[in-house]
Design a protein that fits this description.
Among the domains are: 55 residues, no CATH class; 67 residues, no CATH class; 104 residues, no CATH class; 73 residues. α5 runs antiparallel to α6. The chain is an alpha/beta fold. It has a 20-stranded mixed β-sheet that branches. A four-stranded antiparallel β-sheet has the order 7-11-15-14, with no helix packed on it. β12 and β13 form a beta hairpin. The chain is elongated, with a radius of gyration of 52 Å. Helices cover 20% and strands 36% of the residues.
Length: 528
């Protein structure tokens, strides 16, 4: 680090004298710098050289008997955007006065700086600074940006974003694609988030910089079957159904209308309300609806239709042995082939062929054909048709007068009881054989088998008792309804009927008749 020079000038009556510091590297250059700094005229350069040569401590170098002194100066610069004020200090000349903090502060304020003055920084600069360097001593406060209000949606408003799901095996699932979004009653559809206002700023001159005004949130897009909360911030579904977002309105439709087929373009349908299909339900796809299902075309093989309400198929069902149609209420179809039908109340069709059918009340085959042939049919109250069976003696099994649900449970419990009894008997044999040997005489593995068998015996015995109790409860309901089978044209041989647990095998064709049970056997009556 270079040594600080002590070379200086002294003014005397006969001129200006230089006090020379010989410890510096370049003595003459050191003197000439001061000459230029103090702007000394009429300099005797020869006297300077002579003094340096003789190493004189002091030498008169000019007849001038004064030096102009200059005080320390501070230049103030305000940025174009008026957000900062900076200063540059100029060093004092020959015994010029130094600026005080108050001097500097007054100068800043005098230049118009009113806001954001860094007083601590200014104090620091008064004590120590680098001349000629710019320092920021005041900064304004920029306005804080606000946030526009907005609506947060809880469903997709852009159907283009919906894509089929890629499965783990690399294939793409085009069937289970949510092309239609559903809502439950009371479900939140959108929330309004209020705008957050910005904060005004101020420049160094004390002038306010106004923040950009945040835009308010758009209004809630209330449409049909939606409701706005009391605080006006939340849009909710009033009913269950399909979410429809159109023309900046959110509505809930209790009816989902498919203009074409239910197939790859729609995926499987799972809807809380009624589903109306204008064309067909393609093979392998399904519709599950909380309301009714209406299909104006046909239902192909391998289809599943499940409705909590009614199901109507205008043109018919080609089941292929793999289609299930299940309704909480009624089923109506033109024709049904190789299908499983289950209805909580009634089933009506023109013809049903080779299908498994269950309905709570009446199976009604109407129209010109009125045909029921093949399969297993269970109806709670009545089967009514023009023709039952075929001249080929096709096996057609009909049961009426028993609730399908009760009958199904009764048969399931009966099978379970048979299986449990078999397991119980097997366990008893093991216990009897091992007990004869005596538990103390048995090896450890056989002891373990005996203990497990004894525990199983208790479990099976308890289970048998529970199943028998349930069967006893169901038994009175098996004969609760008065069943009837009516044929306006013919019942062919090969048909088996069971009415209230009484059975008849049709050996010969029966013309225009009604079958009923007197409690002991199936009787043939008049068709009305």
């Amino acid at each position: 680090m270079a040594k600080e020079s002590k070379t200086d000038f002294v003014v005397k009556p006969d001129g200006i004298y230089v006090i020379i510091d010989y410890d510096v590297v370049n003595v003459k250059n050191d003197i000439l710098k001061l000459v230029r700094k103090y702007n000394i005229k009429d300099v005797d350069f020869q006297a300077i050289d002579e003094a340096i040569l003789k190493k004189l401590p002091e030498q008169r170098i000019s007849n001038q008997n004064f030096i102009d002194s200059k005080n320390e100066r501070m230049e103030i610069n305000i940025s174009e955007d008026k957000m900062t004020a900076s200063v540059i200090f100029t060093e004092p000349v020959y015994k010029g006065l130094m600026l005080s903090f108050q001097d500097a502060l007054d100068m800043l304020k005098g230049s118009g700086v009113r806001f954001g003055i860094k007083e601590d920084k200014l104090r620091e600069l008064i004590e120590s600074k680098e001349y000629g360097k710019s320092y920021i001593v005041a900064e304004g406060e920029r306005p804080t940006e606000g946030k526009d209000g907005y609506l947060e949606y809880f469903f997709s408003t852009d159907k283009k974003k919906i894509k089929p799901k890629e499965l783990d095996n690399g294939y793409v699932d085009y069937r289970n694609v949510d092309f239609f979004e559903m809502a439950n009653a009371g479900q939140t559809l959108a929330i309004m988030h209020d705008a957050i206002p910005g904060k005004d700023g101020m420049n160094v001159l004390g002038k306010i910089n106004q923040a950009v005004k945040a835009k308010p949130a758009p209004r809630l897009p209330k449409g049909k079957n939606t409701v706005i909360s009391e605080d006006g911030k939340t849009l909710k579904a009033e009913i269950a159904g399909r979410i429809i977002y159109l023309d900046y309105r959110v509505s809930i439709s209790p009816i989902l209308e498919i203009a074409g087929d239910v197939g790859n373009e729609t995926g499987n349908i799972n809807f809380l309300g009624t589903v109306v299909v204008k064309k067909n339900v393609v093979s392998g796809f399904s519709i599950v609806a909380g309301g009714d299902i209406e299909v104006e075309g046909t239902v192909e093989d391998g289809v599943t239709l499940i409705s909590e309400g009614n199901i109507m198929v205008m043109k018919g069902i080609h089941g292929g042995g793999k289609t299930l149609v299940k309704a909480g209420l009624d089923i109506n179809a033109n024709f049904v082939e190789n299908c499983t039908l289950e209805a909580g109340i009634n089933i009506t069709a023109n013809s049903i062929m080779h299908s498994n059918v269950k309905c709570g009340n009446v199976l009604n085959l109407i129209g010109k054909r009125g045909l029921l042939v093949g399969g297993k049919i269970i109806a709670g109250e009545k089967v009514r048709a023009r023709t039952i069976g075929s001249n080929m003696a096709t096996v057609t099994d009909i049961e009426v007068g028993i609730s399908p649900e009760i009958l199904e449970e009764y048969r399931a419990k009966l099978k379970e009881l048979e299986r449990t009894n078999e397991e119980y008997e097997k366990t008893m044999k093991i216990v009897d054989i091992l007990s004869k040997v005596g538990i103390n005489e048995l090896p450890e593995d056989k002891k373990k088998i005996l203990m497990e068998s004894m525990r199983s015996k208790i479990v099976f015995k308890t289970k048998i008792k529970e199943l028998q109790t349930r069967l006893d409860e169901l038994q009175p309901h098996l004969n609760k309804k008065s069943g009837k089978i009516e044929a306006g044209n013919i019942i062919y041989s090969g048909v088996k009927v069971m009415i209230n647990n009484t059975v008849m095998y049709i050996r010969d064709n029966l013309d225009c008749c009604a079958l009923y049970s007197d409690g002991n056997k199936v009787r043939i009556g008049t068709y009305y």
